[in-house]
Each structure stands twice: as C-alpha cells, then as structure tokens.
Amino acid sequence: MANTHPDQDQELSTPRTPIVSFLGPVSSYTHQVYTLCDFQRPPWSIGLTDYDLAQAALACFESDQYNYTAAKTITDVFTAVQSGEAALGVVPFENSTNGTVIFTLELLADRHNLFPDITICGEAYLDVSHYLLGHKPSRNAATDSPDASGACTPTISIPAPVQPRTKPLRSLKHIERLYTHPQAWGQCEIFLGAYLKGIERIDVSSTSRAAELAKEDTTGTSAAIASSLAAKVHDLDILAKGIEDREDNTTRFFILKKGIDEEAVEEKVFVEKPPTTTIKTKSLISFTIDHRSPGALAQVLDCFRGYALNLTSINSRPSKVIPFQYIFFVEFEGSKLDDPSGRVKGALACVAKLVQSWRWLDLGLGFDIKELQESKEEMVDKISGDRTGRGWLIDKEIRKFNSRGRSLAQSSRVQSSTQAGLVESVTSRPANYVYDYLSPTNSHLLNISLADFLPEKCYPSGFKTSDLTLPAAKPDGGPSAAPTLPQGHHLVYFPPQIRSCDLLPDGTDPLQSPGPPYVRRMWAGGSLVFQRGGDRQIKLNATRAVCKEKITDVVIKGQDENEKVFVTIERRVGLLSESGSTAKSSGDLPTITFTLEKRNLVFMKEKTSAAAKKDAARPDKIVKPIHTPDVRIPITPSASLLFRFSALTFNAHGIHLDPEYCRTIEGHRNLLVHGPLSLVLMLSVLRSQLKSDEMILKLDYRNLAPLYATETLNVCARRDPEKKDQFDLWVEGSGGGFAVKATALIGKAGTNEGFEGSEALDKF
C-alpha cells in the first residue's frame, strides 16, 4: 500500500468549495446579484432567504456552498472561469437604458481564442439605482438649482428640456471630478447635465472602485456614481439618490461557466419536465460572414425566421482582422439542449452553411427573473418546491461539483470554417499600403546595431565605426550622391501602421493572421528579388516610397492540434512622387518594383503551458551541413541586439522580448532571433564575398530551427564551384546543425540584363 501524507486523505474526503468570481470590489452591482441585503430587496423578496434570492437571480450562490472572489476587471472574471480557478463567473451584459456592455461583448467575441470553453449558463436581472457618493461640503451651502447650470434652461432649440428625476441632497459646487464605470454615464446623463455639467469624468473598472477612489481623495472634491451599499462599505456621504434617468433602469448579468456538464445535459434533454414549468430558454451565438456577399447577413437571419425562432437581440463588434468586418451576436428564444421539435437544430444547421465561422455561447438555460416577481408563496413554491426545471439542474451541478471536487467538463463550442473558406477569406483581403520616407536614419541605426557583431568586411560600403555621424540625405553632390540602400535594409523601413490596441496578444500584426485558433506565429522563410540596373538602385535621399503588402497564398497542413496555416505575403517596394504619397489607384502608384519580397509565415494553435515548458526543455534536433563554407562568421546575438532590431522594425512580437513568454507560451528556451535579422546577417556576410562588380539578384531561404539569444550561431557562405553565379548560404545553431538554409543568385551590377524572376519586377 502506498504511503500518503496525513493531510492528503483529509483533502480527498473534503469537498472543494466552488469559487464564484465577480466584478469587484465588494459592493459592485455584480456583487449584489447574489448578496442583496434586506434594505435593498424589492417588496416581493422580503422574507426570502439568501438562498431563495440566489436561485431567483439564477446565481444559485448559497453562502455556505460557494466562496466569492472579487475580480478587478471583467477580463479577470473570464480568465478565472477559463482557467478553472472559479466554477462560475458573474459579468454585466447589457443595461435597459445604456445598452450593451462593450467590455463583455469584446470578450465574448474572443478573437484570439483566449476563452474557448466559456459558456453562459444563466442570466440575472438587477434593478439598478445609482447614487452620487462623496464627501459633503465643508460648509452648509445651498442646494444647486438645475437652472444654474443652464442645462435645464429653456432655449429656442430646446424649449422644454428634460428635467432630472431627483435633486441633490447637498451642494455639489465643491465637486471637481467624477468616477464611475463607463456604462453608468449613459444611465445618468440628465442628472449630470443638470447639476454637474462640465465636471471631469474618469472611467474606472467598476462602480465600487469609483467609490474607493472617492474615499481616498482627502480633498473631498471627488465623487462617485455607485450603489447605496458602496456608501455604507466605504463610509461615504450620499449626495444624491436615484440619479438614473429612468426608474426602470435594469442591468442584465450573465452567469459564466467553463464547458458543459455532459451528464447534466444528457439528463436535461431526456428527463421529461413537469407540464407546469414556465421556464423560457434563450441561446446566444456569434458568427462571421463574407461581407463582400450582398445580403449575407440577411440570409443568416432568415434561418431563424424560417424555423419560427424569435430573435431577442442583435449586436456586433469589429473583427479586427479585416477593416469593417464584424463579428455578429444573435440571441434567440430556444435551446438545442431542449429542442423536441428540432427547430433550433435546423436553424443552426442553416446558419453553419452560410457563415465563415460560428460559436455557440449560451447553454440556453436562461430565464427572466422579472417573471418571478410574484407573491412570496409562489416564489417559494417555484424555488424551494420540487426543484423542477432549472433549479433542479443547478442543484444537480452543485452536488456533483462538491462531491467530486472537480470543475465542470470542458466542451469547446467553436465550429471551425472549412479549409477552403479560410483560404478564400484570407487571400481575398485587400492589399495593405505602407508609406515611408527613405532617409539614411534607419539603415544607419541598423549598421550601428550590427557593428559589434559583424567583422568590418561585412559592413556596407561607406560605414565606419570610427565615424558614426549620420550620412546626409541630400549631400552637396545632389540626390544621386546620397548613400545607396544596402540590400536587405528595406526590412527596417515600412513599419506596420498598427495601433498598440489593435495588435494581437502576442504583439503581432492582425492583418497577416488567419485568426483563431491559429494564435502562434513563426517566420518560415521567404525570398528576395532586387532590381539590377544602376539607375534602379534605391537612394537614401528622403524620397517618398510605398510598400504594397498582399497575401497571395494560404496552405493548411497537419491535423487536429498539429494543424498549421502557412501564409505567403508578397511585399513590393516602389518609389513615389510626393503627389502620390497616399494614393492607391493604379495611376498614382509606382510602375516598377525596386525590391520584391515574399514572406512565408506559419500560424499554429495554442500550446498548453505544460506542453510549452516540455518543448522548451527538449534538446535540439541537429542536421549538420555537408559542405565546407568559404567563410564562417560566428555571432552571439544579445538580448539588446534583439531589442534594437525589434524597435527598428516596429516589431512587438513577444518571442523576441520576453523570455518567460517564450518558455511558457511558445515552448522555446530563450528569446528567438528574428527571421528578418538572420536574413540581414546572411546578406551582410554574402556581400563580403562578392567581387566589386557583383550584386545579389535573388535569394531564397528557409528557416529550419530556432536561433536563440546569447547562443553562438555561425553564418556560412560558399560559392558553388560549378555555378559561379550561385552561393549556398546557411546559419548553424549553437549545436552546429542547420537553422537557416538559403541559395543566392549573383550577377553583374549596373546592367539592365534580365535574369530568371526579374520579369516580376516590371510591374507594381
């Protein structure tokens, strides 16, 4: 018999108390979904126990069966449920006055597949009455009149302005700033416009956090819009009561959990409910469509009409993959878990045929708490009687969770689009135009960054470490005397024009991503083709230039968790006149391409943290080169070099900046050397091997294995002994094996003679 720790048996025999995560701090409206105090309860609830109220509010959070954890943000609630730290989560979804809570809708959109197992198992409605909280003025000032601010004064344009429902209890002249959750502003506009017009408004994560900040302001000039409970918790004065615009102001909350309890679902489907049950079911799905197809959205919505399913709400959020493409959210009455007529199943099958991708978010177990606002006897009978319907199902889930000490079974709700649909949707994206001025600055900074890692013979012509002065863009000899752009240095120009908030979670460009579930990106290889003629070399004389980026091919390989998406991006660099600086019509664009680059990126599915750490500890696979190089340049890239190159290329990818991210998310033991950086190093070494009248015409390369910071790599070059116009290039990792392989075509510089592949440069 195996030995066990004395505490282990105790732990196994004691049920683990489930955790409920809510948007905190304590006293937030989300917290009140299941902690309503007697003085706040509506008349129909007086005398009911907290357990009864919890059931009525769909939270089912009995105080002795659940622990409560306050989350700082709505994102933290989603994260706690997805990770299994919390069994259930409570988040606000919409308000009857101010509409949808955008923060929750953004997380349900889940563009980056961060919350694939989140489902909605219930809803709760809470009557919301806002209070203005703060510190009363130091002197007994008279109550402000609404007419004093001018907001309620009749004017020609507004002869009968709307009057607030309530007046302040104290003077508000001392208030200089207001804190609250963004959703609350729109619920109190009439009062704020009348009494606090022009006062600074500051968004915070929750109304209870607003109360905390008002409490912390010792000057007494801050106020918060929050609940009456927050006034008691934070010992704040109530400056005004019921400042919401409408008396029926109500917020709807979603109850989140991870996956589906399959056993409960099975019984829910096959156990016949009593004929007296009045529970209504609702479901929520999200989907994307081809926006180029006229009537695409109407066709999807017609699926619900065709199966006689009533739509109760429609929302949308930007996809952030293609500009002006949206993720749609549709809520309808019915559930595929309780679908005896097959109408829901039929409608969803119809939807699946018309959309690019879709996801089922709601278990369809919700019902309206307002339908339960009846007499105490009817309420108790519904909730604490024979536990039919939803109450029975939740009780069953609680018993199973407590007895087994485990989280609910996971079940992904994502319905992936077909491979053909993915290929079409990605390759049909419009071209992206990136503009830049080609001054010497970026190239010069790249030379400085590489100077300590390359021998002097690999420096571009004209660069010396003894004089790091920036070359002139317009020297005395005229524009033609300006320095020439070294081959490959175009990589530090034309940075992505993306705001930080639009970057993907790993810091990469969303315009190049196929989207979830392919959330990890690596550089697989590519090619370069350069203009040959002397009059077609790019001068760094501050000329306006453009880089046209277009996804030209998408290939899907592998299956299941090993499925990968290879995306080919074509980049054409051309020069512009100043008048064509922002034009995208064919008449205003360059007529030829100076540099043609193709990038092959591979996108992979997310790894578990355990799998990533295992991969990070795995030894490298080593395949050693068979040829002896003409030159071998050892380089030990530092973290600072990677940082500088990231800055020059405007590259925020975490694999180059965050070692912990590399180990725990991507499965690499250290920071990775950029694919473009290894390309620049190869081009630098290759230049050192060319004759004075030679130049690089073409280069094709493949990245075979990662290169790591602080580990010595070797850049190798070998001229083909039989084909003198070709070079073999490769980069060896720290173990001596192939990391990058490349072949280059060399030709005589300064001529207009064509070569294989040069015809692609004759257009833009």
UniProtKB/TrEMBL annotation:
Domain ACT intervals: 285-359
GO cellular component: mitochondrion
Domain spans labelled Prephenate dehydratase: 19-258
Keywords in alphabetical order: Amino-acid biosynthesis, Aromatic amino acid biosynthesis, Lyase, Phenylalanine biosynthesis
Enzyme Commission identifier(s): 4.2.1.51
Pfam families reported in the protein's UniProt record: PDT (PF00800)
TM ranges: none
Catalytic activity reported: prephenate + H(+) = 3-phenylpyruvate + CO2 + H2O
Keyword match Nucleotide-binding: no
GO annotation, biological process: L-phenylalanine biosynthetic process
Pathway(s) of this molecule: Amino-acid biosynthesis; L-phenylalanine biosynthesis; phenylpyruvate from prephenate: step 1/1
Gene Ontology MF terms: (3R)-hydroxyacyl-[acyl-carrier-protein] dehydratase activity; prephenate dehydratase activity
Protein name: prephenate dehydratase
Organism: Venustampulla echinocandica
